[in-house]
Specification:
185 residues; mainly alpha; Rna Polymerase Sigma Factor, Chain: A; Arc Repressor Mutant, subunit A; 2 domains
Length: 185
């Protein structure tokens, strides 16, 4: 189904002005395109979903840079493709690093030291403090996704909300949480 470019341009204009419904429209009307594109590339539901969420997050953060001489869907797919390439590069570097470390330390003590445990505990308590600064509905979606490890579908059922709303809420919650963490000295 081909989307009306004039309507897309209107919704982009409205989104630039802060219209929540315009963001929802853009997300809902293009989600399947970007997700299908990533599913073909990654062959992994979880990775495809995560990259799709990152794609919309990045696109919405940089909406002011969108040039309407090009199709919005093409712009989104390009962002998505670049995010996937970045992910592959990171994974390759991490694998090489792990391989090198494994060669250097064939026997590694996997038990965390007391210092490691303390640092982990402090980081978790800082993260929880930041999460508590969010509005309750954002706290809830973060809790369901990252602490209870629910899928998006399970979250939608638990919250009795449409899947697209859950995805948008989680996207916003992550963005707000990231902003809070970055502002912390």
């Amino acid at each position: 189904m081909e989307l009306d470019q004039n309507l897309i341009d209107l919704k982009i204009s409205e989104a630039k002005q802060g219209s929540q419904s315009a963001y929802n429209y853009l997300l809902n009307s293009h989600w399947n395109l970007v997700y299908s594109f990533q599913l073909k590339r990654t062959q992994d539901d979880f990775k495809a979903e995560e990259i799709t969420i990152q794609t919309f997050s990045k696109a919405f953060n940089q909406l002011s840079t969108y040039d309407n001489k090009y199709k919005f869907s093409t712009w989104l797919v390009t962002i998505s493709k670049n995010l996937h390439i970045d992910l592959l590069r990171k994974e390759t570097r991490a694998e090489k690093r792990l391989h090198k470390e494994f060669k250097l330390n064939s026997v590694v003590d996997k038990n965390p030291t007391a210092e490691d445990s303390l640092i982990t505990e402090q980081n978790l308590s800082e993260l929880l403090a930041h999460i508590k600064k969010l509005k309750p509905h954002y706290q809830e979606v973060i809790n369901l996704r990252y602490f209870q490890e629910m899928s998006y579908k399970e979250m939608a059922n638990s919250l009795d909300e449409p899947l697209s709303n859950v995805k948008v809420k989680l996207l916003r919650a992550r963005r707000l949480l990231s902003d809070l963490i970055e502002k912390t000295p």
